[in-house]
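The protein record minuted underneath.
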Amino acid sequence: MSSAERPILVGGTGRSGSTIVGHLLDRHPDLTLTRPMEVRFITGNNGIADALAVAMRKPGSAKAEAAARVAATRIMERWFRRAPDVGLHTSVEREELQGWCERYLEQSETDPLGAAQTITRTIMASIARSIGADRWVDTTPANARKADRVELIYPDSTVIVVNRDGRDVAASFVHQTFGPDDVFAALAQWEQRVGRIHAATQRSRPDRILSIDLVDLVRTARSETIEQICSFVGVTVDQDMCAWFDANVTHESSHAGRWRRDFDADTCARIDEAYLATCERLVSAGVPLPSGE
C-alpha cells in the first residue's frame, strides 16, 4: 500500500493542540505537514465528507446533488484562498481545481463514493507533489468529529484526536478572530464538539483512532506520548523530532490553565461551575473527559 493511502489526520475541538501534534510529526523524516496545514475541504463543514454522507443516506436524491454542489463551491470559493498564504492555492492551480470539481460533480450523480475518493486523492496528490511528501499529515480540527466519514474516503487513514481541558479551549477561543468571543458560548461549543468527536470515533474502526491529552504531551508524559503517537502511525521515534519538540514546546507555551489567568475571580468561579455541569453531562452520556490542570 502506498504511503499516500495512509494519511495521518489530526483533529480536536479547535484550540485543543492539534497544531502542536502536526508540527511535531512534520519534523519526522517520513512525514510531511500539508500546505495549507489545514486543507479543510475533506472534513470541513459542508465539505467532501459531509456531501458523501448525504449521498450514502439518500443516493441519487436532490439533497445529495445539492450537497455535492455546495462542497464543490466551497472548495473554489472558501478553501481555495482563505488568506494570502493560506489555502489550496498555495499548492494547486485554480484552473486544475475547477476541472477536478466539475468532474467530481459529474461522477457524483452515479458514483458518489468514487467521486469523493477521486477528487480528494487528486487534490491531495497535487499538494503532496508540491511539498515533496510521501505520507502527509493534515490538522483540520474537524478531522476528529468526522473520523467516521473520512474512513470511507481513506479506509487506511489514522486519526489522532487531541483533547484539552474545555476551560482552556474556551479561554483560547475568546482571544481569536474566529469562533465564539464569549467564554461561556465557547464552552458550550466545546461540549457539543467533544460529544460529536466521541460519537464519530465510536463509529470508526478502532485501530484507526488514537486519543491523547494535550497535558500528557506537553507536561506529564512527554516522551511516552511521543512514543505512543509514533507507534500508532507506524514510524520510529526520531531524535531530531524530539529535539525540536523539547526546544519549542514547553508546558508554559501551551498556556495550560490560562482560563484562571485570563479572567477575574468571579468569572473564573462561574467558568468552573459551568464546566463542572458540562463534565457531568458528558460523563452521564459516556463521553470520556480530558485531563485537567
Observations:
- The chain has a mean pLDDT of 97.
